[in-house]
Amino acid sequence: MIPLSIPKLNGNEWKYVQDCLNTGWISSAGSYVNQFEDMVAKYAGAKYGVACMNGTAGLHIAQILLGVTENDHVIAPNITFIATLNAIKYTGAQPILIDVDANNWQMDLDLLEQYLETQTETQTRDTETCRVDKSTNKRVRAIMPVHVLGNIGDMERMVQLAKTYHLDIIEDSTEALGSTFKNKHAGTFGSIGVFSFNGNKIISTGGGGVIVTDDEALANKARHLTTQAKVSAMDYIHDEIGFNYRLVNVLAAIGVAQMEQFPGILKDKRAMDVYYREHLQGVGDIAFQAIPEGAQPNGWLFTFSTSRMRELLAYLNENGVQSRPFWMPMNQLEMFKHDIYITKNDVSASVYETSISIPSSAGITQEQLETVVRTIKAFYEE
Ligand SMILES: Cc1ncc(COP(=O)(O)O)c(C=O)c1O
After folding, report:
1. Using a 6 Å CB cutoff, which residues line ligand 1?
2. N6-(pyridoxal phosphate)lysine modification sites (predicted)?
């Protein structure tokens, strides 16, 4: 079976992990953790990085840092992996779901603007000017754009909208290490960005995340909150409710080795994306995810749409090509059925019903790429 997305571990992973084991620095205090978070922040062009256990934990902390509470709304796209929404719910906040753009599958910015303009109003709360949803009387605190599949929408417009409507941006950049919009890296457009390094990401630590920000106070607070909010190095004195969210050294050691190889991996991923687009163009009724002008995606997980998605999915999995359907839209899940969903034509439903992800591992070989394409063509020719 050609796997959907597995890590490529060809560098110094063993050497650095052995170093952790040999020295006994296996927990959260080792030097690889600092090194890893610095490497990720530097790569993304952010001033600070804070490593945490996974991307979900990072998204949770990011919201706490910006003061999101149960009295707030956080805006998210209706198509994302469940973790985005779970992280919002951990804070007690209520999501506002925005339908996605039919071409690029990112949050539809026209719908976002329409919602903010017509369904929210400006108020002053706790001496701050903010936007409040007129139907719930809750403050709309932040937008959490998701760079779905490593693609990236018009972030300049998103930043402008956030400014106009007094909102923070927390970027769910978990899938977007390496992706840029007008040469600015994903995760650096808002107050905070979060990357994930779980098993299927472009590079992996097994499980892991890094929060990035340019704000020193936010970075310090993130470090504090992810390490049980302990005030003193010696005494067990804690000044607020903290979390045991810090990444451990053994996993960060893998991360350092992965970051060393990242430029090469990114190049290969983008070449894979070009290969699939060239060779699947015009096959059956396949349609590709559009890349917005100015965007340079990382090519994380190749996904296309076709009216015969379910048939193709079964065929590929039966013929040695591991493939997956897309995420069920959030508004269709039991937990979010009653949340506000802003849509005109429910694009999310059709994207979900037609989209399929195909093998996209960092180390996919030319032979495997050819096999994937041949198998897809054979399906449409049968
Ligand atoms: C869009 C999105 N958000 C959040 C996450 C959560 O990241 P993690 O698995 O590291 O918790 C992931 C990845 O799994 C993701 O794809």
Report:
1. 54-56, 80-81, 83-84, 146, 172, 174-175, 196, 198, 209
2. 201
Q: For residue 89, how far is its CA from the centre of ligand 1 (angstroms)?
A: 15
pLDDT digits (tens, 9 = 90+) for 78-94: 999 999 999 999 999 99
Fold held by 13-259: Aspartate Aminotransferase; domain 2 (3.40.640)
Select which of 47, 184, 201, 230 is catalytic: 201
Delimit the domains of the chain by residue range.
13-259, 262-381
Question: Average pLDDT of 28-43?
Answer: 96
Ligand 1: nearest atom to the Cα of 197: 10
Band of pLDDT at residue 28, cut at 50, 70 and 90:
confident
Residue 136 pLDDT greater than 90, yes or no: yes
Q: Which two tokens stand for residue 343?
A: 């849509």
206-245: burial string, b at 16+ Cβ within 10 Å, e else: ebbbbbbbeeeebbebbbbbbbeeeeeeeeeeeeeebbeb
Residue nearest to atom 2 of ligand 1 (CA): 81
Q: Which CATH number fits domain 262-381: 3.30.160.250, 3.40.50.200, 3.40.50.150, 3.90.1150.10?
A: 3.90.1150.10
Q: Which of 53, 90, 196, 298 to mutate to test the pocket of ligand 1 (most atoms within 8 A of CB)?
A: 196
174: CA distance to ligand 1 center in Å?
6
Whether 337 is catalytic is no
pLDDT above 70 coverage of the chain, percent: 100
